[in-house]
Amino acid sequence: MAAVIGKDLDYAAQILNQGKLVSIPTETVYGLAANALDTNAVLSVFKAKNRPQFDPLIVHTHSLEAALKFAQIPKELLLIAEKVWPGPLTILAPKTEIINPIITSGSNLVAIRIPNHPLTLQLLKMLHFPLVAPSANPFGYVSPTTANHVFHNLANNIDYILDGGACKMGIESTIIGMDYDKIVINRLGSISNEQLAKLTSLPIIQKTNNNSNPAAPGMLDKHYSPKIRLNIVDDFETIDNIDNCAIIHFGKMERIAKHNLQLSAKKDIDEAAKNLFSLLRDLDHLPIEVGYIQLLPEVGLGKAINDRLKRAAQA
Asked: What is the pTM of this model?
């Protein structure tokens, strides 16, 4: 039986209390949620997504007080979290004993955040447990930013889809941790490097790739990939098969193909981030062989967008 889309928080809470799966909206992407303290429920998330158990999950909760029950957050990261939460920031910190190693893929570090979406925050406050909630899509595929995206990919694998409208940000949360006296970015995301630099006086380093035993989600080389081949090009003018392709534009359409998609006509990086995953999904519904895109300027969320594009285009 296919999942139902709706806005019934009581029903969503009832399903989660039964150890079943609910897709929840966040400001970044839609998550596939289950009771983080129920081992069987957590395992069902891996199964529904066909996600390998070496790829850890993020724990979602509703308050800083609650987060401290699940993670021993260093004061340097706590200061940043206090300025951002609820928001698109995930903290990687030593876990407490209550967190099952299945969630962390055996690591002593757990990824945790407080999402900034009114429906999901209200739902989390109704529950007596936190939620694991990786993106609600088959493993490796493009992340969902609407309830319909979730329905299209996972309707037969989950029990309910909580509809919170289109995601405001459209790019996953930024994941940070500590390495001695440095802030480590483990995943580029909806908080830009420039924004992060304003939140701390500590040096910031980046460690965003790990294929064998990732410390955090989103570190695998190939990820966020549409089924249609995606090619990154320096110049659209070099494309010679414009009848069998789509071009995803940012700003002026300098080369017109049979199918043209627009990240942001006004070259707004934030608008491009919001539209990115929807447009990558659109490629799979066009009669084409390949999609083409150029990397965006490496400013603001441009770095996170380019990170997603490079992983999506990985062979």
From this structure: 0.94
